Amino acid sequence: MLSAESAAGAYPVESVEMQQRIINRVERDSRYKKQLDQNLPMPEPTPTDAITLAARQVANTINAKALVCFTLRGSTVMRASKGRPSVPILAITPFRATSRQLALSWGVYAAVTETENDEFDLVLRNACRAALQKGLVTSPDDLLVVTAGLPFGTPGAANVIRVVPAAGPACWDGVCRID
């Protein structure tokens, strides 16, 4: 552990870079992924667990860059994180406190974004912007798998899976609508 070196040592940047190289190498190892998969807890028989499991499978199938989960208090994101998906999870919440708590979860990048709007496409566009700002997507063609509960504001109502290109919900197959 290099915490003393990274906090007060002569080479803090280099020590953190070394930690990141070690993490990257371990996480690319097929044996690591196999062990993670063997130790995953069974999903609970709930709609939220079913949606997050399906989203993880869709993300693997289409090589998505991230899962995007809309959440109020973080329970949906925590369930998705518990499944250790192979892609990052972008947690979208309207609450700063929830965002801060979720930032400590495995594989989660949290963002505070307004979700009170009734227009789902607008909320999806905001999520695509957040994915770009967090560095989770690099190309307009990168795909995101989105989970949400509609109507927004209903706790535990994960009932939507949608695949969205990073360019936004108005773009598909390279064709964009001009709003």
Automatic annotation (TrEMBL):
InterPro entries: Pyr_Knase, Pyrv_Knase_C, Pyrv_Knase_C_sf. Residues 49-164 form the Pyruvate kinase C-terminal domain. This is Pyruvate kinase C-terminal domain-containing protein. It comes from Tetraparma gracilis. The lineage of its organism: Eukaryota, Sar, Stramenopiles, Ochrophyta, Bolidophyceae.
